[in-house]
UniProtKB/TrEMBL annotation:
Location, primary (coarse class): membrane
Residue ranges of every copy of the Ig-like domain listed in the record: 125-205, 214-302, 307-396
Matches recorded under InterPro entries: Ig-like_dom, Ig-like_dom_sf, Ig-like_fold, Ig_I-set, Ig_sub, Ig_sub2
Keywords linked to the UniProt accession: Cell adhesion, Disulfide bond, Immunoglobulin domain, Membrane, Repeat, Signal, Transmembrane, Transmembrane helix
Record's protein name: Down syndrome cell adhesion molecule homolog
Stored PROSITE patterns: IG_LIKE
Topological type in the membrane: Single-pass type I membrane protein
Tagged with keyword Transmembrane helix: yes
PANTHER family documented for this protein: BASIGIN RELATED, CELL ADHESION MOLECULE DSCAM
MF GO annotations: cell-cell adhesion mediator activity
GO biological process: axon guidance; central nervous system development; dendrite self-avoidance; homophilic cell adhesion via plasma membrane adhesion molecules; positive regulation of axon extension involved in axon guidance
Length: 404
């Protein structure tokens, strides 16, 4: 008895973006097993889609889901159901595989199949699960499937590149194969799983490729002023080649109108600007991609502009008891701070800070101008508007208020 069920789902690798739909094929075959031996019911699906499956369950018809973690049943990452120490009652049920989509929660079920249990007989090993190629990202876990039936229970031995596998605490023989923790580039190679008992032998051979994502050396933009030149390198310190490096400004490709030059040489990409303007302000991101992953590093470029007057204060008259505005405004980046100082009378100016908000009679407006709500005779004198933003020298300009 053999059948199949096709499960459609969306491959949304890129942070929730819905791309081209993918399909997986679930097939469960009728299996024969011997009493007290091991058996495997396999449901195969593409490894490219496996990360999108939040769960894979083997169900018995008209019964609850099998609790694999606490019983003789084990589900592998490839969807195979292993039954350890097969019992006669295991042949009383139909089995089928159910998958659940990680993002949508949608479920699909395969066809059903029976497990035929018979009395144990001596037999050579028969491969139940194997692999031809596995890819894993560096520092991640990977399992190389190798499981066989046979009586007596077969023994296992692993070879890497035609040599016995050297002891390593990261390597562990599990029930279903070879488990490698924290995979390293040196783990790449051809693996052979030898299986044997007194009645014969078999083997599984496959390739493991450990792929290493890029690592970007952190960089930061120093303090720049308008009109200066900029050169910032983005260096990929490690990761599999080839590596492709691109830049973005504020999350988008850098506009050609900004006159930014990008030079790519091997594992380095440099950003150059020959004449900084305020238009160059923003967050710049270096993105490095290879077959393993895409990584990025971001830094903010702030083009600093020294302060200059937009409106300079000028001598003017004030009417006693009336309101008056002493105009002063400036621009720059960061936004300049404007402070007012006062020197009473018409003599040689000796400026002192103005006590602002004393009864709200005198205050500095948003644009930097000084507002006097009720002019008094004692307000007559020199006033100094001082502008600063820690870029270059401060600028200042004085004026005289004549109270009438």
């Amino acid at each position: 008895m053999k059948g199949s069920c096709v499960c459609d789902f969306i491959d949304a690798k890129a942070a929730g973006r819905a791309d081209e739909g993918k399909r997986i094929q679930l097939t469960v075959d009728e299996v024969k097993a011997c009493f007290s031996s091991h058996s495997s019911l396999s449901s195969y699906f593409s490894l490219l889609t496996a990360p999108l499956l939040s769960s894979v369950n083997m169900l018995e018809v008209a019964t609850p889901s099998i609790v694999c973690e606490l019983s003789r049943f084990l589900i592998t990452s490839t969807g195979a159901l292993y039954i350890l120490d097969v019992q006669m009652e295991d042949g009383l049920y139909n089995y089928r595989c159910m998958t659940r989509h990680r993002y949508t929660g949608e479920t699909r079920q395969s066809n059903s199949a029976r497990l035929i249990v018979s009395d144990p007989t001596n037999s050579a090993p028969h491969i139940l699960d194997s692999f031809e190629r596995r890819e894993v990202m560096g520092s991640h876990r990977v399992e190389l499937p190798c499981k066989a039936s046979g009586h007596p229970a077969p023994k296992y031995r692993w070879l890497k590149d035609n040599r016995p596998l050297e002891p390593d605490p990261r390597f562990r023989q599990s029930v279903t194969g070879l488990l490698i923790e924290r995979a390293q580039p040196g783990d790449t190679g051809t693996y052979v799983c030898e299986v044997w008992n007194g009645y014969g032998n078999a083997e599984v051979a496959g390739m493991l490729l450990v792929i290493v994502p890029p690592t970007i050396h952190p960089f930061e933009f120093p303090r720049f002023s308008i009109g200066q030149r900029v050169f910032i390198p983005c260096v990929v310190m490690s990761g599999d080649q080839p590596v492709f490096i691109t830049w973005q400004k504020d999350g988008r490709p850098i506009p050609a109108s900004l006159g930014v030059t990008i030079d790519n040489i091997d594992f380095t990409s440099s950003l150059r600007v020959s004449n900084l303007t305020l238009m160059h302000n923003g967050n710049y991101t270096c993105i490095a991609r290879n077959q393993a992953a895409a990584v990025e590093h971001q830094s903010q470029l702030i083009v600093r502009v020294p302060p200059k007057f937009v409106v300079q204060p000028k001598d003017q008259d004030g009417i006693y008891g009336k309101a008056v505005i002493l105009n002063c405004s400036a621009e720059g980046y960061p936004v300049p701070t404007i402070q007012w100082e006062y020197s009473k009378g018409a003599g040689v100016p000796q400026f002192r800070s103005i006590a602002l908000n004393s009864g709200f009679r005198i205050e500095v407006l948003v644009n930097g101008s000084l507002f006097i709500k009720h002019v008094l005779e004692e307000d007559s004198g020199f006033y100094l508007c001082r502008v600063s933003n820690d870029v270059g020298a401060d600028v200042s300009k004085s004026m005289y208020l004549n109270v009438k």
